[in-house]
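Protein-methionine-sulfoxide reductase catalytic subunit MsrP: structure, please.
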Amino acid sequence: MLIKRSPNGIDLPFPSEITPRAVFENRRAFIRQMAAGSIAGGALLEMLSREAFAQGVNPKLAAKRNPALSAQDKPTAYHDATHYNNFYEFGTDKSDPAENAGTLRPRPWTVSIEGEVRKPLTLDLDALLKLAPLEERVYRLRCVEGWSMVIPWVGYSLSELIKRVEPTGSAKYVEFISLADRKQMPGVASRVLDWPYTEGLRLDEANHPLTLLTLGMYGETLPNQNGAPVRVVVPWKYGFKSAKSIVKIRFVRDMPRTSWNRSAPSEYGFYSNVNPAVDHPRWSQASERRIGEDSFLSRKRKTLMFNGYDVASLYTGMDLKKHF
Ligand SMILES: Nc1nc2c(c(=O)[nH]1)N[C@H]1C(S)=C(S)[C@@H](COP(=O)(O)O)O[C@H]1N2
Ligand SMILES: [Mo]
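Here you go.
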């Protein structure tokens, strides 16, 4: 098999090189155990989601848990986190990314870091994986649509990368630009958003230790539908601020226009901090449904200010109703 061990403990083949056999073998083992009656009822679903769908599909990514920056909440089941997604480049239904993102080729991949920096850089994936020690951080992710998940991400603070490019004094904001390739992404043919998907943060938000440059989840490299091979995760903001499959990071002087802000400026502001006191014009943001905890009461958790993260000092003196 074409598995090469990198110093970081990362297996480096294309997932496609190992998937069929690994999945096949897991399924065979699973069927054997099931026939032998050695799998109890509750373990069955867990096996299905973890083994048949997950393990062996994406290369492992070793990382040490950072408990100080991890939520105590119970992580969402892997199967839910990989089959209930927003990734409009692959369609607008929650099930579309899992079905359609197989055509994304996450290797080879480069990210160019440019704009108001002294040392612009183009990094390939292996350089990104080696840039700083990988950590596992369990974060809450709250979608503006009113649902949330809890995901053990793997990555390191974006600030690690930022300090290497040395932003100039003129750099005030950071823009994240996702891949937009019609050949790999069927949804890019539709006009739901203007492509490429673009997001942005103020420089101090980008430098906040919680802002994660993300290369994996659940101990493995990112599945395509979750934004392979590299995305950001900004846990105190609505999920759409966390751009997937990033190819460019640009440091700029002026607040960038973002894809969602362009499509509906009155609904999606630049900041988009999770805020139960500021409703979306078409629905309340006071509560949320945790995926995997569904019941006939579809919304049962109170949404926490900044999604429960201690980041208020970034916004001292700002009217968050105005800067929504
Ligand atoms: N490029 C790109 N990034 C994206 C999106 C998208 O459509 N395209 N959707 C966003 C939204 S609305 C959410 S809620 C999160 C979902 O991330 P997840 O599928 O990994 O949970 O990704 C965000 N990043
Ligand atoms: Mo979202």
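Notes: Confidence is low (pLDDT under 50) at residues 1-32, 41-56.
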